[in-house]
Automatic annotation (TrEMBL):
<dbReference type="GO" id="GO:0032259">
    <property type="term" value="P:methylation"/>
</dbReference>
<protein>
    <submittedName>
        <fullName>5-methyltetrahydropteroyltriglutamate--homocysteine methyltransferase</fullName>
        <ecNumber>2.1.1.14</ecNumber>
    </submittedName>
</protein>
<feature type="domain" description="Cobalamin-independent methionine synthase MetE C-terminal/archaeal">
    <location>
        <begin position="13"/>
        <end position="338"/>
    </location>
</feature>
<dbReference type="GO" id="GO:0008270">
    <property type="term" value="F:zinc ion binding"/>
</dbReference>
<dbReference type="GO" id="GO:0003871">
    <property type="term" value="F:5-methyltetrahydropteroyltriglutamate-homocysteine S-methyltransferase activity"/>
</dbReference>
<keyword id="KW-0489">Methyltransferase</keyword>
<dbReference type="InterPro" id="IPR002629">
    <property type="entry name" value="Met_Synth_C/arc"/>
</dbReference>
<dbReference type="GO" id="GO:0009086">
    <property type="term" value="P:methionine biosynthetic process"/>
</dbReference>
<dbReference type="InterPro" id="IPR038071">
    <property type="entry name" value="UROD/MetE-like_sf"/>
</dbReference>
<keyword id="KW-0808">Transferase</keyword>
<dbReference type="Pfam" id="PF01717">
    <property type="entry name" value="Meth_synt_2"/>
</dbReference>
Length: 365
C-alpha cells in the first residue's frame, strides 16, 4: 500500500465511544462534584490511552476521539467570538428521537480570536509522536444551519456569511500555526438538499434550494481559500448521527455537480453504508484527479460486521465512476458524534476499523 498522505486508504471520521471513566467524570462535573481540573485530568488520561490504542490498531489518522466535547459541532461553534452555548426548550428532531435540548446562538459579532480547541489539538500532537494527527471541527455552514440567529446583530445573510468566513480563515491559520496539517470539516447542511422532502422544507423556510446550495459552496471555498499548500482539508458530509439514528435521507444527485465538481477540498468523506445514501452514480461529476473520495461503506451505527466481499464489490462499483486510485475506505460516520454515543460496544468500533484496514489492504495492496 503506497499511499502515505491524508486522507488515507483506510481512514475514519474521528469520534470514538466515550469510556466509562470519562462519562462518570463528566457527569460528576455537571453535578459540581468535581472541579474542571479534575475532569481535565481524566480527559487527558483517556485521550492518551485512546492515542496508544489507535497506534496499536494501526490507525493512520490519530484523533482525540472528540473526548473533550459534548457535541461534534456546538462545542466549537459556541467557543467562537459572538457565539454562546445555551439550554433550549426543544432538541433537534431525529428519526423517532429528539436530541438533548442544547444549542448555540449569536450574541455578538462573530470572530475567531482564541479557542480552547487549539490547545486540544496541541495535546494530541504532543502525545501522537510521529503519527499524523487529524483534527475535526464543524463546517462553517453549520453556524448558519444550527445557530439561533439574531436579526439585530445580523440584519442580512451577507454580513453573517462574511464574518463567518473571516472567522474560519483565522481558525484554519491558527490550527496550522499550532502544527495541524490534516483538518476535517464536518457538515450536515448538504443533506437538506438530498431529498424532495428536505428541499420542500427549505422552500417553506423561504430558501430556494439552488441558491442555498450555491451559498454552501461559496462559504466552504472562501473559508479554505487561504489554506497553506501543505495542509490537507477534507469534508465529511453526513445525514445525522445521534444514538445510532439519523436526521435525513436521500442520495447526492441534486447537489452532485457542486459537491463533486465545485468544492475545493482535498477529500470528501461520504456516507454510502445503506440505501438512504443513494447510488454511486453521482460520483461521475468528480472532475479532479487529486480529489480523494472516502467511501463510508462500514456503518458506525451498529456493531454487526459487514461482509468483507460485499464491501469489496461495492468499492469496485464505485470505481466505475472514479478511478480506484482516488478512492479510500472508512466507516460512514464517527462512533460517537455526541458524548451519548451510538448503540455498540467499544470492542465493536475497533472491529470495524480492523475490517476497514483489512479490506483496504486487500483492495489496494
Amino acid at each position: 500500500m503506497t499511499q502515505l498522505t491524508a486522507p488515507f486508504r483506510y481512514d475514519h471520521v474521528g469520534s470514538f465511544l466515550r469510556p466509562v471513566a470519562l462519562k462518570e467524570a463528566r457527569s460528576k462535573f455537571q453535578k459540581n462534584e468535581i472541579t474542571y481540573d479534575e475532569l481535565k485530568k481524566v480527559e487527558d488520561q483517556e485521550i492518551i490511552r485512546l492515542i496508544e490504542k489507535q497506534k496499536e490498531e494501526g490507525v493512520l489518522a490519530i484523533t482525540d476521539g472528540e473526548f473533550r466535547r459534548s457535541w461534534w459541532h456546538f462545542d466549537f461553534l459556541g467557543g467562537l467570538e459572538g457565539m454562546e452555548y445555551y439550554e433550549k426548550e426543544k432538541g433537534l428532531d431525529f428519526h423517532n428521537l429528539e436530541t438533548r435540548k442544547e444549542g448555540v446562538r449569536v450574541v455578538g459579532k462573530i470572530d475567531f480570536v482564541s479557542h480552547p480547541f487549539i490547545d486540544h489539538f496541541k495535546f494530541i500532537k504532543e502525545h501522537a509522536g510521529e503519527s499524523t494527527v487529524k483534527f475535526t471541527i464543524p463546517s462553517p455552514n453549520m453556524l448558519h444551519a444550527r445557530a439561533d440567529l439574531n436579526a439585530d446583530i445580523y440584519p442580512n445573510d451577507q454580513e453573517l456569511i462574511a464574518d463567518t468566513i473571516n472567522a474560519y480563515q483565522k481558525a484554519i491559520q491558527a490550527f496550522y500555526d499550532a502544527g495541524c496539517r490534516y483538518l476535517q470539516l464536518d457538515d450536515t447542511s448538504w443533506a437538506s438538499l438530498f431529498s424532495e422532502e428536505s428541499r420542500a422544507k427549505l422552500v417553506s423556510e423561504g430558501r430556494e434550494p439552488q441558491q442555498f446550495m450555491e451559498t454552501l459552496q461559496y462559504v466552504i471555498n472562501e473559508s479554505i481559500k487561504n489554506k497553506p499548500s501543505d495542509m490537507t482539508i477534507t469534508m465529511h458530509i453526513c445525514r445525522g448521527n445521534y444514538k445510532s439514528t439519523f436526521f435525513s435521507s436521500g442520495g447526492y444527485n441534486f447537489a452532485a455537480e457542486v459537491i463533486f465538481g465545485g468544492l475545493n477540498v482535498d477529500g470528501l468523506f461520504l456516507e454510502f453504508d445503506d440505501e438512504r445514501s443513494g447510488s454511486f452514480e453521482p460520483l461521475q461529476y468528480v472532475n479532479r484527479a487529486d480529489l480523494k473520495i472516502v467511501l463510508g461503506l462500514i456503518t458506525s451505527k451498529f456493531g454487526d460486521l459487514e461482509d468483507k466481499e460485499e464491501v469489496k464489490a461495492r468499492i469496485q462499483q464505485a470505481a466505475k465512476y472514479v478511478s480506484l486510485e482516488q478512492l479510500c475506505l472508512s466507516p460512514q460516520c464517527g462512533f460517537s458524534s455526541t458524548e451519548d454515543g451510538n448503540i455498540l460496544e467499544e470492542e465493536n468500533q475497533w472491529q470495524k476499523l480492523a475490517l476497514v484496514k483489512e479490506i483496504a489492504k486487500e483492495v489496494w495492496g
